[in-house]
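REQUEST ID: PR-0412
SUBMITTED BY: lab tech R.K.
PRIORITY: routine
TASK: structure prediction, single protein chain
INPUT:
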Amino acid sequence: MPETRRRVFFVSDRTGITAETLGNSLLTQFDGVDFQSLTFPFVNTDDKANSVVAYIDHAAREDGVRPIVFSTTVTDSVRQKLKQANALFMDLFDTFIPTVEEELQLSWAHASGRAHGPSTKRYASRIDAMNFALEHDDGQSLRKLDKADVVLIAPSRCGKTPTSLYLALQHGVFAANYPLTEEDLETGQLPKPLKDQQRKLYGLITDATRLSQIREERRPGSKYASIQQTSYELRQATKLYKKFSVPYSDSTNMSVEEIATMVMQEKQLRRHSF
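STATUS: complete
OUTPUT:
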């Protein structure tokens, strides 16, 4: 059966990241629906709220079905205006705040941006982690490798860079990554710069066919992109991981968030709250 089309709006008085994260987490549980989403950030005045409501009402008329709205606005007047839209309106603060207020016997602050706003020391730590990940991407620098919380290793294009950056940006983890070259894989030994970092290593592999397709986009028709080459490199990498007791994951069907979680769990890395 064809998928049902349904528009979804994420509305926030800040970036909209919280609304997107929570809303998308819920929507992933429903198959057979083509969710088409749009985010309205910085809706922090009555005029902006009126404009958003007009857009939502127009979408409802155009589609013949009311949109779904996830909201994380904190200003009462803005929230009241948004609730007038012709939509299934889900205020994520309304859903949870009253229960928490009752439990804590405190009133909530109605302060926007606290979930993702900068928090001095911890924010600076996250920036430092990002700079570290960029400097130590793909083995470019080895001068501060001893400061890494984790060092991701894998053949080229197996997901080392996005995972390192995600670990840094989301969790403040100092993540380096190092490519396993054909020469490394032929010798069956850890690259010399990594021998002193063995306890920090975490390996990645992926499906050989998928890796070939990714490499083909980068270097069409090359040996580097051939299925024979990717199959060989992945076999050798797996042998290397097992030989040196390096924990590893198959990233083929995993999101970068899932890979990062596996890495943090295995290496017992603490999540930083920002």
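NOTES: Residues 123 and 170 are 10 Å apart (CA to CA).
REVIEWED BY: pending
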